[in-house]
């Protein structure tokens, strides 16, 4: 699709400086701009590129004043970065605005759905599934019995949502994600043979939640595994049974959270973090990448290491660790002097 500078300025509530009728049909980095592309300038380090970019339209901050001639049309806005992000969101909505039911696909007779849905080829909707308005289900998605999915949510190709799970409004479930598989529940008998403990709960995902590609969220043994409003999960994360993650917490790739752990609101958890089960992590906690968490964490703590230490203590200790060879050498020299002095 093509958009004029005037149309884009209307979406962003911006001011056009240059040719208002120039059109764009793709997005680009400012240093890689081409004729017909739209870009933005937010970081002052990239200012020099605006004088050489071939992008047809560039979004800039309202206070930007060019010091040289420009070939690109400008759209001035309050915040160029946020404006471009808004435009990306709009672009994705237009690009992904598919409607209709493709064949072959399977819809159980008891399944219901709202207006403007998209159901891709080879998708499966089980018994009593309920889809809201404008839900997009891409090809090869499996949605089990009694699943509900709220308005404007998207489930990308190949994702699997097991029975009885609930997905809220405006959620995104990326390809390969699995919601509601059995939790890792096994109990050894007197001979040490593991017997499966039935996992009879479900997964509840509230509104505005993103689940990355290849991420798994296990159903609860009893009750629910819960992702609260605004939770953001990166790719390849493991969330075990009965875990609860608080509102607007973000977790980076390859992190694992063991069963029944409760994570608070507005936490930031780096990649490859390991979190044991049955602990409580407070609100606004920050955990650095590759940390191991084996205890309860209070609100506002910042942690690093495995097992994780207080962030400040870890950094102080790490300085000594880096100097350990020198320290050992000095101790050896002191021992030699002491021994020589004793003879």
UniProtKB/TrEMBL annotation:
<keyword id="KW-0012">Acyltransferase</keyword>
<comment type="similarity">
    <text>Belongs to the transferase hexapeptide repeat family. LpxD subfamily.</text>
</comment>
<dbReference type="Pfam" id="PF04613">
    <property type="entry name" value="LpxD"/>
</dbReference>
<dbReference type="GO" id="GO:0009245">
    <property type="term" value="P:lipid A biosynthetic process"/>
</dbReference>
<dbReference type="InterPro" id="IPR011004">
    <property type="entry name" value="Trimer_LpxA-like_sf"/>
</dbReference>
<comment type="function">
    <text>Catalyzes the N-acylation of UDP-3-O-acylglucosamine using 3-hydroxyacyl-ACP as the acyl donor. Is involved in the biosynthesis of lipid A, a phosphorylated glycolipid that anchors the lipopolysaccharide to the outer membrane of the cell.</text>
</comment>
<feature type="domain" description="UDP-3-O-[3-hydroxymyristoyl] glucosamine N-acyltransferase non-repeat region">
    <location>
        <begin position="22"/>
        <end position="89"/>
    </location>
</feature>
<dbReference type="InterPro" id="IPR007691">
    <property type="entry name" value="LpxD"/>
</dbReference>
<keyword id="KW-0443">Lipid metabolism</keyword>
<keyword id="KW-0808">Transferase</keyword>
<dbReference type="Pfam" id="PF00132">
    <property type="entry name" value="Hexapep"/>
</dbReference>
<keyword id="KW-0677">Repeat</keyword>
<comment type="subunit">
    <text>Homotrimer.</text>
</comment>
<dbReference type="GO" id="GO:0103118">
    <property type="term" value="F:UDP-3-O-[(3R)-3-hydroxyacyl]-glucosamine N-acyltransferase activity"/>
</dbReference>
<dbReference type="GO" id="GO:0016410">
    <property type="term" value="F:N-acyltransferase activity"/>
</dbReference>
<dbReference type="InterPro" id="IPR020573">
    <property type="entry name" value="UDP_GlcNAc_AcTrfase_non-rep"/>
</dbReference>
<dbReference type="GO" id="GO:0016020">
    <property type="term" value="C:membrane"/>
</dbReference>
<protein>
    <recommendedName>
        <fullName>UDP-3-O-acylglucosamine N-acyltransferase</fullName>
        <ecNumber>2.3.1.191</ecNumber>
    </recommendedName>
</protein>
<keyword id="KW-0444">Lipid biosynthesis</keyword>
<keyword id="KW-0441">Lipid A biosynthesis</keyword>
<comment type="pathway">
    <text>Bacterial outer membrane biogenesis; LPS lipid A biosynthesis.</text>
</comment>
<feature type="active site" description="Proton acceptor">
    <location>
        <position position="241"/>
    </location>
</feature>
<dbReference type="InterPro" id="IPR001451">
    <property type="entry name" value="Hexapep"/>
</dbReference>
């Amino acid at each position: 699709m093509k958009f004029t500078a005037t149309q884009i300025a209307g979406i962003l509530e911006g001011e056009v400086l240059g040719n208002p009728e120039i059109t764009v049909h793709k997005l680009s980095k400012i240093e890689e701009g081409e004729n017909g592309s739209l870009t933005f300038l937010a970081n002052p380090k990239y200012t020099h590129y605006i004088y050489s970019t071939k992008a047809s339209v560039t979004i800039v901050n309202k206070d930007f004043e060019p010091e040289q001639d420009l070939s690109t049309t400008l759209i001035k806005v309050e915040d160029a970065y946020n404006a471009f992000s808004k435009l990306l969101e709009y672009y994705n909505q237009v690009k992904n605005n598919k409607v209709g039911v493709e064949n072959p696909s399977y819809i159980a007779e008891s399944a219901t759905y709202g207006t403007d849905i998209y159901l891709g080829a080879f998708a499966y909707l089980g018994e009593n599934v309920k889809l809201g308005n404008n839900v997009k289900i891409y090809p090869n998605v499996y949605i089990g019995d009694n699943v509900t999915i709220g308005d404007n949510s998207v489930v990308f190709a190949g994702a699997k949502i097991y029975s009885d799970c609930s997905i809220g409004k405006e959620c995104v479930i990326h390809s390969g994600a699995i919601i509601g598989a059995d939790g890792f529940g096994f109990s050894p008998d007197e001979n040490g043979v593991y017997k499966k403990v039935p996992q009879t709960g479900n997964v509840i995902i509230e509104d505005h939640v993103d689940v990355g590609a290849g991420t798994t969220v296990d159903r609860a043994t009893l009750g629910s595994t819960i992702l609260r409003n605004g939770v953001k999960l990166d790719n390849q994360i493991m969330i075990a049974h009965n875990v609860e993650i608080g509102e607007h917490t973000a977790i980076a790739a390859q992190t694992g959270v063991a069963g029944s752990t409760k994570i608070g609101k507005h936490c930031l958890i780096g990649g490859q973090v390991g979190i044991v089960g049955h602990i409580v992590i407070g609100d606004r906690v920050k955990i650095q990448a590759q940390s191991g968490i084996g205890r309860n964490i209070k609100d506002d703590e910042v942690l690093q290491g495995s097992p994780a230490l207080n962030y400040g203590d870890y950094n102080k200790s790490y300085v000594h660790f880096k100097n350990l060879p020198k320290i050992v050498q000095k101790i050896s020299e002191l021992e030699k002097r002491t021994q020589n002095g004793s003879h």
